[in-house]
## 1
Amino acid sequence: MTSPDEHPRTDGAPAEASPGLRDRTGASPAAEAPAAPGEGGAADWQRLHPLSVWASAVVVAVFVVPSAIVGTVVLVVAGQPLWALAPVPGSLAFLALTTYLDLLRLRAVRYRVTAERMEMRSGIIAKAYRSIPRERVRSVDVAAPVYVRVFGLCSVTVGTGEKVGAGSYQLQLLYVTAEQGEWLRRDLLYRGAARTAGASSADGEEAREPGETELASLDPRWFAYAPATTATLGVGLGAIAALVGMNAQTGGVGWDWISDQIALPTAEEVSAFLMARLLLVVPLGLLGLLISGVVVLTAVAVETWWNYRLTREADGTVRLRRGLLTSVSLSVEGRRLNGVTLHEPFVLRSVGGADVRAVATGLAAGDAKKTTAKSRLSPAMPRERARRLAADLMRAPDSPLDAALAAHPRAALRRRFTRAVVVSVLGAVLAGALAWLHTLATAAWWEVVHRVEREIIPVPLASTAVEATPSWGWATLAVGITAAAFWYAVGSYRGLGHGLHPSYLVVRKGMAVRDTVTLERSAVIGWRITRSPFQRRLGLADVAATTAAGQGMYAASDVGLEQGLEWADRAVPGLLEPFLVRPGSDAEEGAGVRGGRGTGRR
Amino acid sequence: MSADTPRLRPPRHRVDRRAVWWWTTRSLTVAVLLTAAPLVPAVFWEPPRTWFLLAAAVIGGVGLFVTVVMPQWRYRVHRWEVTDTAVYTSSGWLWQEWRVAPMSRIQTVDTARGPLQRAFGLSSVTVTTASAAGPIEIAGLDRALATRVADQLTDTTQATPGDAT
């Protein structure tokens, strides 16, 4: 945060917030009634809800009891009736033990929210005490998985920009009632406005709802973008590989058994049938992969993004709501949202889609890859819609994403071509080696390979196809790899860019995944310039702005050194200035070591 | 290139000359250990002995080369500077890095001395900001100087408004 605007607020917060809080709890007992988080004053220690133990027990039971029953059946079938008595009582005892431990944990956990801080005590044997100053709270995440929701509970995760106690960046309550979760969500992030909003707090819940503006809500058509990932074929492959794996586990017996039961032809007949119609089988196979991938990925997207709604509340807090089975509500303090990322993976980009992610302090950078990552503020949506949403989120008069991006020097392209050449050479070597092995393979050897493959998969195609490949097929492979490598190099170079907006800096890069990142210039807390030996030879550098938000560092990659320094200097005036020399205006060449007059005062 | 293109000038101060010996010792230790690894089986195992010896020779050669070249190179690159407004460092040898952090964003300042650094009377100053990009480290300063730098940084940081995030 910037020092000038922040300071008065931190100074004033404790003194001001305290009466404000009491006022709220006192003035509207009805609104606070359900969980009574502040009934005897704000400083009361609260407990987790007792039902949370049963929620956990149900979760464990759902997994343990059926597997115990299956175990019993298997043991009976296997002729071990004595052992069959073990699983069910055993699992029940296990369940009782975990529930008991959970009960102890529940008894030990206390939390409270005072005017200055949120505190939590926990631990049965090793006592832990963690405390977060309220002005350090960056995000509040309220999640309710379906098995918890049926009990009317939810989990609350409070995120901060720094470590809280033993290596954790967050503080988690498992579980509290939904009302209490909602109250915490509002109260913890409401500090800034607590002063000004004395009136609105008295008005209670209804008054605040109209204050929020909707930034985006779900358009079911967006689910069409869900399967547009490189993973689609992969997920389909995974689904089919699971079936094949099960067959292989039984040494091919599974398929034989099924074909006996329903009078299917044997594996040999099937493969002969298929090999005769290869032109039909291969496209159909790919289509099958595609469809199973599409189904799985769409289902995941629907689960994650159902009821999606992104709003900005009256006090500037950005609130995300989504989820079908696990409903999630995440609030990020407006001031902590230092920028956005327009995320465009290759396949999504080629169908004109994108999604928007937050660059915010307190949202863990490590989970950025997960589909349920907290930094994801939108599902995949049309590119233009995503850009509009990004502009709305940044509240800048003209969208920083529209800022003109400077291209990087041709040397950056040359660097990528060098890499492409290396990949091509490796590809040629690989193809050559395979072709050589191909000439070595004898008929007897192929026989063995075919037999092995037939045991694994009822429809053996791979090894037959390989055997049928003529030698020039391998040359095609080498050419294909070369073409792909150079195409990737050009795309990667085109993706590079950096620019400036009056209050944001913008960097873009990536071919497989193109990320356009905007970062508030006031959120830059330093620069990091790195140069590899190759970059030094070509006059390039990676110029990265370090920040407390998001990944912690956003770089303009392979930018010309002078270009990058100029950009960095203009982005944050004064920070880099003392360490730059401008040959035209400043001291003589080589003054670097001793010179740079008037810069340091030591 | 116009006359106004900026260049990055090196930070003002070099690290202590003794750092060269510190880096040499460190590199030599690693090189010796890595070279010894394939020598052990070479002693006990007859048939592939020549191959193990060859591997040891290659690793030893590279290790020796690094040990000779790296410390001098690092000494030319590693520099630091503390002004009233910022900390500025450069480090590395093949891969080089320049870091700038403003005083107002510094969270903590530590000095640290490993056993090897202590043997040479050296010390490191680590400057942490709120960024996940990692701390800024000035390694290989004279112990007394490191303490002075850390004190100065702490004083300046406290005098500079801002809560460092």
Note: Residues 104 and 162 of chain B are 6 Å apart (CA to CA).
## 2
Amino acid sequence: MTSPASPNATGPTPGGTTEEPAGSESAPSPAAPRNEAAGPGPAMPRATLTGTFLAMMAREVRVMRKNFLSTFVRVLVQPLMFVFVFAYVLPKVGSGAGAGGFASKDGGPTFATILVPGLVGSAIVMQGMMAAIFPLMMELSWQRSITDRALAPVPVPVLALQKITAAGLQALIAGLLVFPCVLFVHAGGQAPNIHVGNWPVLLLTLVTGSLMCASGGLLLGTLIDPQKSQVLFALVLVPMSMLGCVYYPWAALDHVRWLQIVTLINPMVYVNEGLRTALTPQMEHMPIWAFGSVLILGTAALSWAAARTFTRRVLT
Amino acid sequence: MTASPGPAVRTVDLHKTYTSPRGDVPAVRGIDLEVRPGEFFGLLGPNGAGKSTTIGMLTTLVVPTSGTAEVCGFDVARRPVEVKRRIGMVSQNNTLDADLTAFENLEFRGRYFGLGARDARRRAEELLELFGLTDRRKGVPFEMSGGQVKRLMIARALVHRPEVLFLDEPTAGLDPQNRANLWELLRGLQSRGQTILLTTHYMEEAEALCDRVAVVDHGTVLASDTVEGLKGSAGTDTVITVSFDGAVPEGVHALDRREGVSRIEVGDGQVRVFARSPAGVLGELVAAGAAAGVGVTDAAQLRPSLETVFLTLTGREYRD
């Protein structure tokens, strides 16, 4: 009951309709799909959930590859400028302009030592959130191109998890690209003191940190009206990165106790403290159980919530 | 045929009510449909009749409020994944993946549905050729013309050889040439055994394409039959409508007793005559006006068509 698999087959269709002679093709008319277009053809393999999930990830990788330069240049410029000014220019300027505090003195940690984990962490968090939010806002807005993948043969919540995985992958790549950039830009004598002291903690932080922020991004993207995305930037992303313990370790906030407590609602704090634990273990950092449990439970809770709100937005 | 036995699409008392802060909006209120395998079925109705909501429920993206809907024997609410395996959907909007080229749109659709990378590329190539889009293979969706977008969306809906193809207002916004091409294309698909359900608000589109038509208005099916059957049951009358610049003259009621006139509807300054043999009716209406001293501001005579079917069923004129 199936026609031959060859795309050139022009034999009579099972339905009994006869084809125009193969040679008599005039102008390529769009109005004449031949037997291969519809109806019985080579049997389709049955799509599995994993297969469809991986195919969607392959699509993300294809798109990421196309936009690689524009995406990741944007990710790199800010941290690069930051280390350039604070770990190179200001220490060189030295005592002038009160910037002396940024230079290492008396064998204490350099500012670069504090900055490296912070900048890697903030790149992960920002990219994870934006990679989830922005495509989603496009897909949910006027043309609703989300239907393209919503019609793929998987439950809609699986599509949400796929989007989290894809944005998490972008976050991870962003973190890995920022790391060498900020590691090697500094003035003489201002090198950051970085070594991987704890590989399991590093991997846990990188992976769950990426996924947690991607799921948080998906959650925000499904809750916030696309027209108000500017507000999202001003009220969520900017305070998050300024107060995310990027430029100082959380322990240093001892002096501003109320802020130390308030910043605990900021997920970026846990990513940065995780990275500090793994990369600069000599510095004071949050206990592993504290950031570890927030990263793991936070990823699970935010993914669950995002899958729910996403499903509610896609299915009306 | 590989289609499963039983109807391709079946709905029973299907309802959808959208809840909004300003109150509930009933979009579909009890729709019963049955589409047989291989059939070209049309949902015809004005904008806002509930057609798109119905097709949304059948394609699993709109959740029914009550009632049941089955596609190829699978309940759309309980087995959405099985339904999605068996359907292709061409929506009214351009829902092409804007980050991918025309070729990649087809390629990845194939991969989502289980084709291996090489088979997916082969199938994409084949469909681009069949739909006359080979020279647009690297085109991105927002650079393509309306007709090309529609063709690509149909090609994409067919990648996995669905049992039922759904099209929501496929020719809305297309120029006459593209519309004619698309009609030809859809007829070709059906002749190869493709079951098709389309929605349209164009009377002539339903007449030109569909084996059977359900006339939908305000979320319910008013009538469902073949085009000929509908005309036979509800629309054999020619409808003559005359508007006067004053009160409808008494004289028009004489027409009620006239041979070949089925009925007369008198409204505010307007009279509508449903007649099996319409010859002379228009003249008599104008004469009745003249006798009463009122002028005629508008007159129309519609021969039996889906338009008169709609008029007969709803008492309202069909407007797009």
Note: Chain B has ten helices and 14 strands.
